[in-house]
Amino acid sequence: MPMTSITEHTQRDPAADQAIYEAAVSQVLDEAKAQGATSSEAGISCESGFSTTVRLGDVETVEHHRDRGMGVTVYFGQRKGSASTSDLSAGALRDAVRAACDIAKYTSEDECAGLADADCMATEIPDLDLYHPWDLDPDGAIDIALECEEVARGYDKRITNSEGVTINTHQTRRVYANSHGFLAGYPSSSHSLSCVLIGEQDGAMQRDYWYTSARDASELESAVDVGKRAAERTVRRLGARRISTCQTPVIFAAEMASGLVGSFISAIRGGAQYRKTTFLLNKLGAQVFPEWVHIHEQPRLLKGLASSPYDGEGVATTDRDFVVDGVVQSYVLDSYSARKLGRVTTGNAGGVRNLSIDSGSNDFAQLLKMMGKGLLVTEMMGHGTNMMTGDYSRGASGFWVEDGEIAYPVEEITVAGNLSDMFQGLLAVGSDVDLRGRIRTGSHLIDNMTIAGE
Amino acid sequence: MSQSLDIARSLILEPAGLGQRDLDRVVDQLLSPSVDAADLYFQTSRYESWVLEDGIIKEASYNIDQGAGLRAVSGEKTGFAYSDEIALPALLEAASSARAISRAGQDGRVKIQPVGGAPMLYPAIDPLGTLTSEQKVDLLRQVDAEARKQDPRVVEVIASLAATHDVILLAASDGSLNGDIRPLVRMNVTVIVEQGDKREQASCGGGGRRSYQWFGEDEHALEYAREAVRRALVNLEAVAAPAGDMPVVLGPGWPGVLLHEAIGHGLEGDFNRKGTSAFSGRLGERVASDLCTVVDDGTMPGRRGSLTIDDEGVPTQNTVLIENGILRNYMQDKMNARLMGMEETGNGRRESYAHLPMPRMTNTYMLAGKSDPAEIIASVEKGLYAVNFGGGQVDITSGKFVFSASEAYLIENGKVTRPVKGATLIGDGPEVLSRVSMVGNDLELDSGVGVCGKEGQSVPVGVGQPTLKIDMLTVGGTST
């Protein structure tokens, strides 16, 4: 069977690329069928773009990227095999299908294995407005980055060094098909600007950063704002000290709080439920958060950084509540974990998309006032989370808060507790929502945690 | 000329119909008068993994990735482009993109020549083919059975087996042509245990630059299963970990992740050239107690972190980082060594052809001391004895680092008593080793599990140390 070869495609029409990738995945599925597979699925992605870093007023790197890959999974009844290749030539695609089929001879019958059910497939593919290529060349990017760094370095004389300002602009095209007849694809773009600085005071250095990212470059924060914010964040950390071991309320700044929500999502993921490797085992219908908490997903937000019209198995994505009035409403399921649990997929193959926890009306300053005295965590280190028990212990730095105001910077301490208690002890979520990731949340105020320090 | 180079040429250049003159032409294309150095890095990498869970072979996959990365370095500037197509037109186009970092200029003229190989630290084999598919499946089933028969509280076993066959070929503007064949195998066993309503899990594994057959020798794979069960059962009994400053005794081997985080990253050349490390400008100064000698050694045969040559073609070496407490050396790649006027140390590594090389660790460990490990524990009145860890992380600028204990015990009156729950330990890199008051005579290296991440790039590494006593370290438990 002839298969089309995919070669150079720089500066080509995106619609033409789409057609070529669609033809290639179709041929992969045909080849799988010819090899005897009872069902199969395949995806191709191609990401291209560049990134450039300037440091101390001069260019440091210009990197041109282009990453392509094809992944295929074949099923022989209930046995499964997978393969992937970065070489999209006809011969390499065929070899990958054969490798997947060979492997499937050695895997076991698994009654839950298989494609997602045909009736779950997305039937319409809405345009989610994710594709906004940035008309920018490396020289233009360098100019923006230089401006950002100049503002940042000029912000305060204690900014003594820089790790650089990086601009990244990429376009991605994905196509996915399976033997239910599903075949779809869409282009997307993503752009970011980040600034990492070093400040120095009394011989001690501190590093901090700020970044902005968006599907559409016109929605990025300005280079001046990013530079100022990075500088302000770096300078405020200077003079950090340790604090004594104590029990205290803690505010997790928005960009740290998204990790806590992420831990909740991991705990209600289907894989963790059927393997029983979660501290939130069988908690569907249980009160896990205080009753004012609402956590929901909006996978089809226009221009959303995590938006997608269908999930990794072609299942239509849809708005979903995971927590209402503090009670768990749904697990996070793909078709495999759904079958293991006797449930239906929630369209979350590949994770959650644009997940939000509703904020109250308190802005960040009001959160500090509510806490009065305690710790504000702005950076964490390490991965000290035991998902089986919920035990939580991580390195932290941030600020000590007195009388509802930031008193002084703090470093070289740990914050510890148990995630179940931390979720129940959530007192407020700020309105200072961080929109830059898959999970959107404001800062979290938690009633009590253990700080280890001096 | 080395056997590895011959194999690399036959696997990479011949299928693409590329000859010596084509390499000359591409490297010429990368050069201009303001380019100090340029290189062309070809790679073809095959990876497979097999996973057993629920007592069945649940998943298996085979992956192939290949391409070429082209780099032009001019002073502190680097231009980089890569192609997943190994063919002359694509390489010339990528070379033009990479060279654009240094504007215009006349072409260089380079004649690429094979260079003599460094001593090979691992066999030039394709590890994927060192067991049949039936044998791989059988090995996983044996591990599953071994774990389950250890204790009735074992309720689930997840075992995985993986191998990479990595072939690289490197042509540089100094005219050198180098090749390396890098086998890497890895096995891992995770068990879940249940007792009443308490559940715990633990993992054990290992590997190295060798054949799959090693797992079957001396019951290595079965030992991973037994050890994973032991660790999980210990955690069932764990009580809350203490919070605050206290003496900490670290066990031998994998707890060497301390060295990787506390000092290793801070001694990488790039951070020190830029002055962003807490160790910047401190060569020749005391940064540890005189009991501490720490090396980074890429030359250990068969080790996960070892390389015959680094990703810039420089033979790896045994670099003394800290000698009797005094900071002696940084770890360098070519660019940072040149800009700092220092010697290359064979630490230029990259995740793949699609990433730029930078200074990275290989196998980082502390040499053995004189103390009996039992005597070290007996010297602590009240403290923590930590023998197994998850990962760690460091902020190289402030020097603060963490590493997370996954198996630890209280020491009370010189005796190891109760197991405690996992807790993060936090300290200050430039300070922590000055608090090392005893070093054991029991140096061990880890079993071959380490992955190091830096600026989004992952590379395999090794760590090791003897039993160590740190007089004061912060333990991040919940019990105050």
In short:
Chain A is of the alpha+beta class and 454 residues long. Helices cover 23% and strands 36% of the residues of chain A. Residues 1-11 of chain A have low confidence and may be disordered.
Task: List the main descriptive attributes of the protein structure presented here.
heterodimer, A: 454 residues, alpha+beta, PmbA/TldD fold, 2 domains, 36% strand, B: seven-stranded mixed β-sheet, 23 strands, 21% helix, globular
Strand percentage of chain B: 35-45%
Gyration radius of chain A, rounded: 24 Å
Strand and helix order of chain A: HEEEHHEEEHEHHEEEHEHEEEHEEE
Uncertain regions spanning at least 5 consecutive residues of chain B: none
Oligomer: heterodimer
Under CATH at level 1, the class of the largest domain in chain A stands as Alpha Beta
How many β-strand runs of chain B?
23
What is the 3D form of chain A?
globular
End-to-end CA span of chain B: 63 Å
Largest interface: A-B, 79 and 80 residues
Helical run tally of chain A: 9
Low-confidence region ranges of chain A: 1-11
Number of domains of chain A: 2
Task: Give average pLDDT of chain B, whole number.
Answer: 94
N- and C-termini, Cα separation of chain A? 71 Å
Report on this model:
- The complex is a heterodimer of chains A (454) and B (480).
- Chain A has 454 residues and is of the alpha+beta class.
- Chain A folds into two domains: 7-234, PmbA/TldD superfamily (PmbA/TldD fold), CATH 3.30.2290.10; 246-452, no CATH class.
- Chain A is 23% helix and 36% strand.
- Chain A contains nine helices and 17 strands.
- A six-stranded antiparallel sheet of chain A has the order 3-2-1-4-5-6. A five-stranded mixed β-barrel of chain A has the order 7-12-13-14-17.
- In chain A, helix 1 runs parallel beside helix 2.
- Chain A is globular.
- The model of chain A is unreliable at 1-11 (pLDDT under 50).
- Chain B is of the alpha+beta class.
- Chain B is 21% helix and 40% strand.
- Chain B has ten helices and 23 strands.
- Chain B has helices at residues 3-16, 20-30, 88-99, 133-150, 220-236, 257-264, 269-273, 334-340, 373-378, 429-432; strands spanning 37-53, 56-74, 77-83, 113-114, 154-172, 176-195, 198-208, 243-250, 294-297, 318-323, 326-327, 348-349, 358-359, 363-366, 382-394, 400-412, 415-420, 423-428, 436-439, 444-445, 450-454, 457-465, 468-476.
- In chain B, strands 1, 2, 3, 4, 5, 6 and 7 form a seven-stranded mixed sheet that branches. In chain B, strands 9, 10, 11, 14, 20, 21 and 22 form a seven-stranded mixed sheet that branches. Chain B has a five-stranded mixed barrel with strand order 8-15-16-18-23.
- The longest helix of chain B is centred in the first third of the chain and has 18 residues, at 133-150.
- The radius of gyration of chain B is 24 Å and the shape is globular.
- Chain B starts with a helix and ends with a strand.
- In chain B, 62% of the residues are buried.
- Chains A and B meet through strand 2, strand 3, helix 2, strand 6 and strand 13 of A and strand 2, strand 3, helix 3, helix 4 and strand 7 of B.
